[in-house]
């Protein structure tokens, strides 16, 4: 938390905070994403309807089947969020977002904001 406070103090020199100032606070972005990874504010499940018959690992998914994805299981899966334990609050896991699979992070659910 000290690192976050130091970033805020160095970026905010007066009481006026604008979009550019917030956009420059990278660690704040990492911090908020980590909070939402651990405690997503959307539904604990994301549902989707299959629009065409699909086969995954030998399993046939028929048209119109509704599939529910358990968000917390994805957010705490060490395969996607390691090498630091997903149980540990570690904002720097978002430092290189090219390493994060976009299909396993649902801080706000899924879709446009």
Task: Offer a quick outline of the entry.
The protein is of the alpha+beta class and 113 residues long. The chain contains five helices and four strands, in the order H-H-H-E-E-E-E-H-H.
Give me some keywords for this one.
113 residues; two-stranded antiparallel ribbon; 5 helices; 4 strands
Overall average residue pLDDT: 88
The sequence of SSEs as H and E is: HHHEEEEHH
Q: How much β-strand is present in the residues?
A: 5-15%
- Tell me about the biggest sheet? 2 strands, antiparallel
**Secondary-structure-derived class:** alpha+beta
Segments where pLDDT lies below 50 for 5+ residues? none
Q: How many extended strands?
A: 4
- Rg, please? 18 Å
Shape verdict: elongated
How helix-rich are the residues, as a percent range? 25-40%
Task: Order the strands across the largest sheet as they lie in space.
Answer: 1-4
Count of the domains = 1
SS element count, helices: 5
Span between termini: 27 Å
What does this structure look like?
By secondary structure, this protein is an alpha+beta fold. 33% of the residues lie in helices and 14% in strands. The chain contains five helices and four strands, in the order αααββββαα. The protein has helices at residues 2-11, 19-23, 26-38, 71-75, 78-81, and strands spanning 45-49, 54-56, 59-61, 66-70. The strands form two sheets. Strands 1-4 form a two-stranded antiparallel sheet. A two-stranded antiparallel ribbon has the order 2-3. The longest helix is centred in the first third of the chain and has 13 residues, at 26-38.
């Amino acid at each position: 938390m000290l690192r976050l406070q130091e970033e805020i103090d160095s970026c905010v020199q007066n009481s006026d905070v604008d979009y550019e100032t917030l956009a420059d606070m990278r660690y704040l972005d990492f911090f908020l994403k980590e909070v939402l990874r651990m405690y997503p504010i959307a539904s604990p499940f994301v549902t989707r309807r299959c629009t065409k018959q699909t086969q995954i690992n030998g399993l046939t998914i028929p048209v119109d089947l509704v599939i529910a994805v358990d968000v917390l299981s994805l957010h705490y899966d060490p395969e996607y969020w390691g090498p630091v334990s997903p149980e540990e609050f570690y904002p720097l896991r978002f430092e290189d977002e090219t390493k994060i699979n976009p299909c396993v992070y649902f801080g706000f659910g899924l879709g446009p904001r």
